[in-house]
Amino acid sequence: MILSAFTAGRRNGNCEIYVKEALMAAEKKGIEVRLYRLTEYNLRPCIACPVLFCPASSDITKCVAKDDAPFLAEAFLDSDGVIFAAPAYSLTANSLFFAFRDKVFGPKMDIAGPMTGMPEPPFIKGRYKHRPCGLISVGGCLHEHWTGFSLAELHTAVMSAQNEVVDHMNVYGIAQIDAAAVNDEWLEKARKLGSNVADAMLTGDNSWRGGERGSCPSCHLDLIQIKPGTDDVMCPLCGIYGKISVKDGVTTLDWPDTPECRQENRFTVEGKVFHLHDINDCMTAFEPFAEQAKEKAKKYREYKSCIVAPPRRSE
Ligand SMILES: Cc1cc2nc3c(=O)[nH]c(=O)nc-3n(C[C@H](O)[C@H](O)[C@H](O)COP(=O)(O)O)c2cc1C
């Protein structure tokens, strides 16, 4: 069994230390481990060809932006479990991680199509599976709120291929190179994360093993959005809805487990199928306006005097 870790942190940096600690723990359980340092790969951002015509969706090597994404996609598809790690940059995961997410995952790895009878993209070669996943976010500021979105954004990369997060860690206060090596508490958590992913791979049980459950029963994070003037709450990451109540200063969250609620959860297979129907409905609703839209968009296409050309480098 192969556990592949993809890190967007610096070479020999803090993410890498935690990832290696996790991999060492998994290796002790007989798992073959592989580490991909994304800084060493050429990854260009997705430039969003129209989704239906994304050339990479049927052949991952045919993306118009040529880079190492096909190699990394193969590495992912050949694995039985995964770890994703990224540093926090301006509260979010860093842009290298986003390039990795958009080029390797997204619609082309989405399992919803084949689940609804559409043909599997040929490059998948029968390798759809529910891989257990561990996520590691590392921030350098002493206050946790400086990592507000970074761990949540690692979750967004697991969505389309239906990886299942069994553990995650949101490290903060670890900034300088090698700082990760002297904080025993976080190292212990990383070891546990590696061990948890390995156990899930070995048993086939991808249920949550990360200990403390956050406010959201699905992602176990505390990102809850409250709609002012109502008792409605939503997890902006998973998309699920619930109710909030406060009694004697104690907050209670209630997340109904109805089919309607389950289909809103984009981390479930049902949620992805619902989303696929949603996209199809959106496209169908637009069809009667397509000609009119083309005509009306003409003036924007033709208005070019405001565009500043990039500098041309003479090499
Ligand atoms: C451009 C940039 C922005 C950063 N922004 C944040 C931030 O918003 N919050 C935070 O906690 N740390 C921030 N950091 C610090 C890094 O997250 C921290 O140094 C981390 O340990 C880097 O991980 P690495 O060694 O694996 O690359 C930032 C670092 C850089 C270079």
Description:
This protein is an alpha/beta fold and 315 residues long. It has 2 domains: 202 residues, Rossmann fold; 64 residues, no CATH class. Helices cover 32% and strands 17% of the residues. The protein is built from 9 helices and 10 strands. The strands form 2 sheets. Strands 1, 2, 3, 4, 5 and 6 form a 6-stranded mixed sheet that branches. Strands 7-8-9-10 form a 4-stranded antiparallel sheet, with no helix packed on it. α5 links the parallel β5 and β6. α1 packs across α6. It is globular and about 60 Å long. The mean pLDDT is 93. The structure holds flavin mononucleotide (FMN). Flavin mononucleotide binds next to α1 and β3. The site of flavin mononucleotide has 20 residues, from α1 and β3.
Write a brief structural summary.
This protein is α/β, with parallel strands linked by helices.
Provide the descriptors you would attach to this structure in a database record.
32% helix; 315 residues; binds flavin mononucleotide; four-stranded antiparallel sheet; six-stranded mixed sheet; 2 domains; alpha/beta; Rossmann fold; 10 strands; 9 helices
Number of separate strands: 10
Ligands bound to this protein structure: flavin mononucleotide
Q: How confident is the prediction overall: mean pLDDT?
A: 93
Q: Helix content range of the residues, please?
A: 25-40%
Rg measurement, Å:
21 Å
The percentage of residues in β strands lies in 15-25%
CATH class of the largest domain: Alpha Beta
**CATH topology grouping of the largest domain:** Rossmann fold
User: For the report, how would you describe the main beta sheet?
Assistant: 6 strands, mixed
CATH superfamily of the largest domain: Flavodoxin domain
Number of helices: 9
